[in-house]
Amino acid sequence: MAAATHGQGDRAVPHHHLSESWAAPALVVLITYAVLATRTAWSRWRTASFAGGGVLLTVALTDPVASLATTDLRGQTLQHLLIGMLAPLALVMGAPVTLLLRSLPVAYARRVTWALRGTAVHLLANPWTALALSAGGTAALYCTPLYGFVPVPLAHAYVLLTGYLFAWVVAGPDPAPRRPPVPVRVAVLAVAVAAHAGLSQLMYAARTDPPVPAGQLRGAVEIMCYGGDVCGLLLALALAVTWRRRDPEAADVELLAPGLTVRVPGVPEPAGRVAVLDREPPRTSGPLTPFEYGDELDHPDPADL
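Predicted structure:
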């Protein structure tokens, strides 16, 4: 991002090389999503959100933002907000995992759910772990010389993936293993906003490494402070939108993929455990009933897929 800003001019990577390194995998992901969305009854809002995330990434990795980010801390900060906060949230709200589960054959859909139950996913899907990875990476980027030793595309990938992870575990509509209750996620989000505010104060005190011109610093602090607040509000809004009160009497279930066994919260077993084999999931005009995959994958949203 800001090789020159960080005193690593000899490591500066031309921004067109960065966009080229991202182009192929990003195009594959977007085309795959579009194909799957057209093959099933899928929300246009979800599709628009996912496409919007792709647009935000494109803006961040091409001119004028990309060229500014190589010479100016303000451009780097803006690029960070786009890659690490706004684009991940838009991508998460596109519910790509849910779309994948709806589109895959039964056997492959089960493999995806088994993967989501893995130990590594359990660890990463903890909101506090996601917060540490996201906020810790941001602090290292702005307050230490670490960035100068990391390839720029790798730094971008880290920021994007940790931002996606945080948005997913806090407010994502896709299923997640043992997702904590809403109050815990709200607390994590509040800590994240406070961490961004603290980082802004460190930057304002010129405690970046190395120091940058005062004008750039003030502008970067404003972008970090106000932009971080806006992103926090958007995450809170996403959490509110995807959250649904669970009805203890609810018994109607809509499966995201045929052949999966699900447990309906509040309904005693075996009545609350429903297995639908080898048929397509039914469609309804209203919102989905919340449920859990097996015993560990929670799906709190599921808002008009």
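Summary: Residues 1-17, 245-305 have pLDDT under 50 and may be disordered.
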